[in-house]
Structures are given as C-alpha cells and as structure tokens.
TrEMBL record:
Name this protein carries in UniProt: Glycosyltransferase family 92 protein
Segments passing through the bilayer: 29-49
Organism: Solanum tuberosum
Enzyme class: transferase
Family: Belongs to the glycosyltransferase 92 family.
EC number per UniProt: 2.4.1.-
Predominant subcellular localization, coarse grouping: membrane
Intracellular or extracellular location(s): Membrane
Length: 531
C-alpha cells in the first residue's frame, strides 16, 4: 500500500521523491501493457474460434496433403440440426482455403482459367460449385442461365461476384444464336431438330461458341465447359491447383482431356452432394484393361453400362484463333487439328443422380412419352432413358426402391472389394473445401452483400434493367419442358463441305462395354474366373 500511495506524501528530500515517482510510473506502465496484451490475445482467440478471422497466409493445413485421393477430411465438424442449410454458417473453426469471399484475383495471375456452363439450378448448387472452382484457380465464369438461375433473387447474387458474367436466355439471345455459322456446318447437324437431350446439347454448343468470344475479351488463357453437377479434380499437383496443372502443360498443346469419375452414393437421402459424397468410380482411362473388364460385371451391378451416364470426360482448351466447340465434351479448331493430351491423374468428378429427387427433376424437364421408342428420340444414354420411364410410370415408393437398387451402393463387402481392386476410390478434398467454405460463411456473405444491393435497386423498373451481356432481364424464364426445337433464322440451310480438320461433334458416350473385350482380355478373364 505504501508504494501505491507514495505520491500522496510530502517527500523529505528531492532525490528520494524523484526515485519513488519514477518507480511508480514504470510499474503502472508495465501493468497497463500487460492488460492490453492479454485483452488483445483473448479477443483474437474469440474471433478465430468463431470463424471470423481467416488466416490470409495459410492456404492449406500443414501436414495434410490435399492431393491424395484417399486423404482424410481436414478440420471438418459434423453439422448440427441447426446448420442443415448448405449456405449456412457454422460456429466451428473455419478452414482457411481462401483470402476473402470475393476471390478477386488480380490479372497478373497466369494462366487465367474460365468455366462456361448452361444452368437452371439455384444458389444452393451454383455457389458451392463456383467457389470451389475459385479456390482451385478459376478466375472467370460465363453463366448462361434460365429457369431458377435466371430469377432476380438468384441472378443478382451471381452477378455481384467478381469474375462472373451472367447471360440470360432471351429472344434476343436466341436471335443472335440463330445467325451462328454452326447452323450451316455439318459437324453438329446430327443433333438438330430433336427434343430434350439433343436440344440441350445444341444449346450448350451454341453457348460455348459465345463463351469463346467472351473469354478472348477477358484475356483468358484456358476455357472449360462444365455442368453444375461436375467438379474439376486437379490431382497430380502438390497445391491441388488447376492453375498450376494447366501452367505446366507444354505450350504446343491445344486441348487437355480430363477423364471423368462418377459418384457412387451410399445413401438415398443425400441433400448436399458436394459435401456428402466421397466415393467415386474410376474412369476406364485410369484403369488397366484387365482390371476394368475383370471387374466389369460387379461394378455395373445390372445397369446398362459401367457408368450410369457418360464416360468420355470433359476438356480444357487453350483460347486461340479459330477455336470452336465440338459438342459439350470437346473443343476443336477450324483451321487445324488440335494437339491434345489426356491426363493420367486429374479428372472431372461427375455427381450423377446423387439425390433421389434427380429422377423427377430430369423427368419434368422433358415432354417426351415414357415409351421405349420415344425415349430414344429424347435421350442419348440408356440409363437416362430407363430413369425417365421409371420416374414417369412408377409411384414414389416404387421409384425409391428402384433408385436404391440401381444407384445407391449398400453392399459394404462389394464396396471394399472394388476399392481394394482400384475400381472405386475415396476422394475427400472437394468435400473438405466445400464444407470449409460453408463454415467460413462465404455463401452467407455473398448473399448478404447482394441482398443489400437488391434493396437499393428496388425502385428501378425490372423492365429497364439490363445484364452484363446486354440482353434484357426477363423474369418470366422459369423452367419449361424442352419441346420447341432450336432452329436457325433461315429455314434453308446450306452445309459447307468437310475440310481435312473437320471432326463430328462428340456427344456424351458410355464407357466401353463387354463387346470391347479383345482376345487377350478374354483369356485373362477365363484364367482368373475361378478366383
């Protein structure tokens, strides 16, 4: 107590008084510094614990290799009942995959990568898909939207995100595409004037043609066409980076083929495929012939093909003169045969019928009759045809039984056997990234930011608004059944002759079937049939 109140006493001599004053000041100053330091430390800890202080210097957790397909999820926590919404924010520690939610990368980062897609999905699917690809290095997105994706509450959120360009399917857009040179060429002609999947295939190709022009205007180096149920999987790079992967591609390569893996769901109640599904069936291109055909029957499980849907992958094209689409799966060039390579590790992860509701949603988009003859006009792949008939003719209980039998993997013994054989594989990294983005509040932030802008613009007439592409925003663009076949503006089409570099558009194709087994593989199967 004497020390604390020393300054209240009259000093007996000057030197003693000065010494005591200095001591009191020093002790109080040190005490104040200690209190401030402890308070700041506690405050920082609270912010970090609540996920409110992302670490901009840490992109990956030290000691975890996100490139390994079998690596375990990183710092994930189970979702509570109060966090069921995929766009919700968790109170657990965040996964520092990003600098900030905008991901507004500078133009100095090379190569610049763009993705184009045609979608009618909602924010619950598009935002995780988009920000996952931003994390692995994609800078630009060209979104051709209709249906739910074109509604004001969805499209305004998408347009608020840096690097995103939204193009609405309006009459003006269709008039522009009706003048495309594609209608006068032969490579896509086999898909003209047919409903459902064929119409979608033509629409995607026309959208890809426009996206090439947009990519060149944006100074993009590579362009990829993906659906919003597909994720790029840049395995084989130490950083799990699509940018790093494409930066290492030799300069004389024009196109990179990514074989696709197909999701193998283990439950019939999946709600968020990107953060719930971790098992995938490998592509034929990533297996030996002996391994593929030797396990074909068990891997197919009575379905028409090894994959439920397509097996010929997707591709990335280097943006250059005379580039053109070659259907939704490939790119081509008008004046040369592109040099292409196929990657041995990287892949496209295709989340195929991961939700039971996918059966009815696909059915509702097509107006064909549920007969074996009519579905051949509407769908290119056998499983899609069967699924459409099932969804159109059975009760919900019967559909669920069919879905469990043909889509859901419930046989644990078979799963372990095919994982051991290398047919099935576990891939956790996309799940970890999407879950980390959700827990860090990225999706909530972008929606909240766009919502503030929507409130500011409420006084504007929706008829006067125009999107970034120059086409008017039409709010009445909700899903319609595909029946009105896309047509060119002129009904008299003139086809140009094939040149040496012409190549027919590549549709979605099933993997090789048992008819593709050669004598060597047949001998292998006979020798190993007893095992």
């Amino acid at each position: 107590m004497a020390g604390l109140f020393a300054t209240l006493r009259r000093p007996t001599n000057i030197s003693s008084s000065n010494f005591q004053s200095s001591s009191v000041f020093a002790s109080r100053f040190l005490y104040l510094l200690t209190v401030i330091s402890v308070s700041l430390a506690v405050f920082a800890f609270v912010l970090q614990w609540r996920g409110g202080l992302p670490d901009p210097t840490t992109r990956w957790i030290p000691g975890d290799d996100p490139n390994e397909a079998g690596s375990k999820p990183v710092r994930l926590s189970s979702s509570s009942s109060g966090c069921a919404d995929i766009l919700g924010q968790s109170r657990t520690a965040s996964f520092p995959y990003f600098r900030d939610w905008k991901f507004n990368f500078g133009s100095d980062l090379r190569p610049k990568i763009s993705i184009t897609t045609s979608t009618s999905a909602g924010l619950e699917q598009i935002l995780p898909w988009m920000f996952y690809h931003k994390v692995i290095g994609v800078t630009n997105f060209f979104l051709f939207v209709e249906g739910k994706a074109a509604s004001p509450n969805v499209s305004k959120v998408l347009k608020s995100i840096p690097g995103v360009r939204v193009i609405y399917r309006t009459k003006e857009l269709e008039d522009v595409q009706a003048k495309s040179r594609i209608w006068n060429e032969t490579w896509l002609a086999g898909f003209f004037y047919q409903p459902c999947n064929h119409e979608l295939f033509v629409k995607q190709t026309l959208n890809m043609e426009m996206a090439i022009v947009m990519a060149r205007e944006a100074g993009v180096d590579w362009i990829i066409h993906l659906d919003t149920d597909e994720l790029m999987h840049p395995a084989g790079t130490s950083e799990y980076s699509l940018r790093r992967l494409l930066a290492d591609i030799p300069e004389d390569v024009d196109m990179v083929i990514f074989p696709n893996y197909e999701s193998s769901v283990e439950r019939d109640d999946v709600k968020e495929p990107f953060s719930e599904v971790s098992m995938f069936k490998k592509n034929y291109d990533h297996l030996t012939k002996e391994m593929y055909f030797g396990n074909y029957k068990e891997a197919t499980r009575g379905n028409p093909n090894y994959f439920l849907t397509y097996g010929n992958g997707k591709s990335a094209a280097r943006v250059q003169d005379h580039l053109r689409p070659n259907g939704a799966h490939r790119w081509h060039n008008y004046i040369k045969s592109p040099k292409e390579i196929k990657l041995e590790e990287a892949a496209v992860l295709h989340y195929t019928y991961p939700k039971f509701s996918d059966l009815t949603s696909r059915r509702d988009r097509c107006g064909c009759k549920p007969t074996k003859e009519d579905v051949k006009r509407c769908f290119m792949l056998e499983f899609d045809r069967a699924a459409f008939i099932i969804a159109s003719t059975l009760t919900e209980e019967e559909m669920l039984h069919w879905y469990r039998e043909h889509v859901v993997w419930t046989d644990k013994t078979l799963i372990q056997k095919l994982i051991k054989k290398g047919i099935l594989t576990r891939i956790y990294t996309p799940m970890a990234i999407v879950q980390g983005l959700k827990e860090s509040g990225v999706f909530v932030s972008v929606i909240a930011s766009a919502h503030r802008d929507i409130i500011k613009d409420e006084s504007l007439s929706s008829a006067g608004n125009r999107n970034a592409s120059g086409y008017p925003h039409i709010t009445d663009t909700f899903p319609r059944k595909m029946g009105r076949i896309l047509e060119p503006q002129s009904t008299a089409r003139k086809f140009v002759e094939f040149s040496k570099t012409d190549r027919q558009a590549i549709p979605p194709e099933s993997p090789p079937g048992m008819d593709g087994i050669d004598l060597t593989v047949t001998k292998y199967l006979l020798n190993n049939s007893s095992s």
